[in-house]
């Protein structure tokens, strides 16, 4: 791998229906593509130069050719790199969209209803999020901005109030809160509503954890060493947080059914504990204490997917200080 393996996404990039691994290598300013040979253990790696201090990436079909393209935030360069998939597991050199300073996490979603995936990202230093609207051919409009809390970080897009429009959820590391920006229905958004969570709220996942048909919010609180769960009333407002203790510095969180009971569990990367924690869902939106699995040094990002085609979810984790990707195969 490159140096400072920092972020991971899993998707099929070469059209063989087998999930591959993409990573951001922050300290070597490149992206790694690990093509899966099918067993979840053997991979062939290619590296692609990107911008200065890349932090996160997201995948989506940005140019309408049915292939998974990549958008990556280059924090030091102040831009987003777009890498177009050629279709055989290789990518064209990046072109960039200027963002201003410190673009951080990123997501790809159609937020204006034109069936074209747009790019959304957080700007930690300027306390706002940015949106680039897709013109349909892999090019994008000028950036639109919305104010958030202090030092916004993770960002997700989902309908939280049941109006079939995509809303925005953002964690605010500096103000220990989550922002909800409700869609007006035309690709624009209302001013934020905020909900308190724990100290240094960074990681974010969204899933219906209480099985009532509405998406709930899971947040990793980096300095509090906790997970916050906010249950959705169904109208875009949320109950006060329920708090669960995890390991030191929970930097990445996912909500996936890991034990086959059709209820989303919580998987968390505890960076300073060098482990991954699993909190199983009790079935009513509450969770058991975590069970942990040792991984490499300073795990910072996780993905959960069936990597070896045995119909069981596996865990893929980036280990920043080990410069490795770890794979935890489901027994």
From TrEMBL:
The lineage of its organism: Eukaryota, Metazoa, Spiralia, Gnathifera, Rotifera. It comes from the Eukaryota. This is Uncharacterized protein. The keyword Signal applies. Keywords: Signal. InterPro entries: FG-GAP, Integrin_alpha_N. Pfam families: FG-GAP_3.
């Amino acid at each position: 791998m490159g140096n400072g393996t920092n972020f991971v996404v899993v998707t099929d990039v070469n059209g063989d229906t087998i999930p591959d691994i993409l990573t951001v290598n922050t300290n070597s300013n490149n992206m790694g593509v690990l093509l899966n040979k099918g067993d979840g253990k053997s991979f062939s790696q290619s590296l692609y130069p990107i911008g200065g201090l890349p932090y996160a990436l997201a995948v989506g079909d940005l140019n309408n050719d049915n292939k998974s393209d990549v958008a990556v935030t280059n924090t030091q360069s102040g831009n987003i790199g777009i890498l177009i998939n050629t279709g055989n597991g290789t990518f064209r050199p990046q072109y960039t969209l200027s963002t201003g300073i410190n673009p951080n996490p990123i997501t790809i979603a159609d937020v204006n209803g034109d069936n074209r995936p747009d790019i959304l990202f957080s700007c930690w230093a300027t306390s706002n999020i940015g949106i680039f609207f897709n013109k349909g051919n892999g090019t994008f409009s000028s950036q639109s901005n919305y104010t958030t809390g202090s030092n916004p970080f993770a960002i997700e897009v989902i309908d939280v109030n049941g109006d079939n429009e995509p809303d925005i959820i953002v964690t605010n590391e500096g103000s220990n809160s989550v922002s909800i920006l409700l869609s007006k229905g035309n690709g624009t958004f209302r001013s934020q509503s905020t909900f308190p969570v724990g100290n240094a709220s960074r990681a974010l996942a969204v899933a219906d954890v209480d099985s009532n048909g509405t998406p709930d919010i899971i947040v990793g609180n980096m300095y509090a060493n906790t997970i916050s769960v906010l249950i959705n009333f169904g109208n875009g407002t949320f109950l006060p947080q329920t708090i669960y203790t995890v390991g030191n510095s929970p930097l990445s969180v996912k909500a996936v059914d890991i034990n086959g009971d059709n209820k989303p569990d919580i998987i968390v990367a505890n960076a300073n504990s060098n482990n991954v924690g699993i909190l199983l869902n009790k079935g009513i939106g509450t969770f058991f204490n975590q069970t942990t699995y040792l991984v490499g040094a300073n795990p910072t990002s996780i993905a959960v997917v069936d990597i070896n085609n045995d119909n069981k979810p596996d865990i893929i984790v980036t280990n920043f200080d080990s410069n490795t990707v770890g794979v935890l195969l489901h027994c």
